[in-house]
Amino acid sequence: MHELAPDAARSGRRPRRTVRDWLVDFSCFLLAAGVGLLGAEALSANPRVPEPLAAVDQALGALSCAALWLRRRWPFGLAAVMAPVGFVSETSGGVAVIALFTLAVHRPFRYVAWAAGAQVALVPLYFWWRPDPDLPYLASIVLLMVLMVAVVGWGMFVRSKRQLMLSLRDRARRAETEARLRAEQAQRLAREAIAREMHDVLAHRLTLLSVHAGALEFRPDAPGAEIARAAGVIRESAHEALQDLREIIGVLRAGESDDSGRPQPTLAALGTLVAESRRAGMKVTLDQRVTDPGAVPASVGRTAYRIAQEGLTNARKHAPGAEVTVTVTGGPGEGLEVTVRNPAPERDVPHVPGAGQGLIGLTERAILAAGALEHGPTPDGGFEVRARLPWG
Fold first, then answer.
1. Which of 145, 178, 211 is the C-terminal boundary of a domain?
2. Per residue in 167-210, pLDDT tens?
3. In CA terms, which of 27, 125, 283, 327 is 20 to 30 Å from 71?
4. Which keywords belong to this entry (predicted)?
């Protein structure tokens, strides 16, 4: 015999009965009706029971069987009513047992204890009023009490099993939700990392394009060699920007972080970055005091490279023509320090559009690498970016 989930799992409207629920309820009704028919037959065969009393008993039994369809909605009420009804009506005994079982499934033990206690208290009086012709008085009491204990124990076992299943389902549901949230968070973090990479890479390339395009616009009478050099830088920067953008879009489509594409630059590639900036017309001085840049951990070296790249990009935007100094110092156990410094621009600087998020992104990069980054104007009107990164 099975029931719906315990009431503790209910919320809002009551669930509609399923086909299985209807089959269980109909089976309970047939069982109670069968027990009632056996009781009615025993009453008819007992000459000590008057016929009017037997008729009243059978009427109460029929009403009790009909009330059995309400056991899911009001389990405690039905069990409480069946205690006195079962005492005066022998044909209602099956309904009283089923109501007690339903109460044990649907309600906590304190409700079951009240209903079962009332029925147990009436058992001696019942057999004193209606002794069983086939069993002694004490044996009848013990047998009925054992039956009631078994019914209550079975109902509480079913309730515990249902609660365990609900708990396991909730755990599985929570685990699935947490796994989905972790996956979404990992995807969001990966996309943020890709966005930072896009800013760091494309800002450097596109700034070169903007500066040299602006130079060609404002100096159409420049020497042919200078125009050709600027056009070469524009072509090369556009090609590199397209290549980087193609790789980033490919990563987004693949749903991965950076498992494909060209190797990520490290500190060893800083010389190439400075040479590229010099070819673009910048005045850059590189003061690298790290004996073996290749020994720097890849994550630290990549962060240092991006900081230097963003510093050169900002200097090219806001201080064109000024000499930029890139200094890298440190060693194992000391940490790595990267400084990008430029003096005040020598002339008015045309406005170059930008997102204004580069330094914020660099600060976040440094913090993620367990380091720190400071930036701000210098006393001579220039600007300085200084980062300290761990090198354990």
1. 178
2. 898 899 998 888 888 878 877 776 676 677 666 667 666 776 77
3. 125
4. ATP-binding, Kinase, Membrane, Nucleotide-binding, Phosphoprotein, Transferase, Transmembrane, Transmembrane helix, Two-component regulatory system
What are 199's two structure tokens?
A: 């800013």
> What DSSP state is assigned to residue 357?
-
CB-based contacts of 40, cutoff 8 Å, min separation 6? 54, 57, 58, 61, 91
Whether pTM > 0.85 for this model: the answer is no
For CA atoms 359, 365, 368, 374, the dihedral sign is negative
Phi, psi (5° rounding) for residue 384?
-140, 135
Residues 273 and 167 in one domain: no
The model's confidence at residue 8, banded by pLDDT at 50, 70 and 90, is very low
**Contact between residue 122 and residue 116 where contact means Cβ atoms under 8 Å apart:** no
The 3-state secondary structure of 77-128 reads HHHHHHHHHHHHCHHHHHHHHHHHHHHHHHCCHHHHHHHHHHHHHHHHHHHH
Over its C-alpha atoms, the chain yields an Rg (Å, rounded) of 43
Q: Which residues contact 93 (CB under 8 A, 6 or more apart)?
A: 35, 36, 39, 86
Is 389 within 8 Å of 366 (Cβ atoms)? Answer: yes
Within a domain: 61:
yes
In a domain, 65, yes or no: yes
CATH code of residue 353: 3.30.565.10
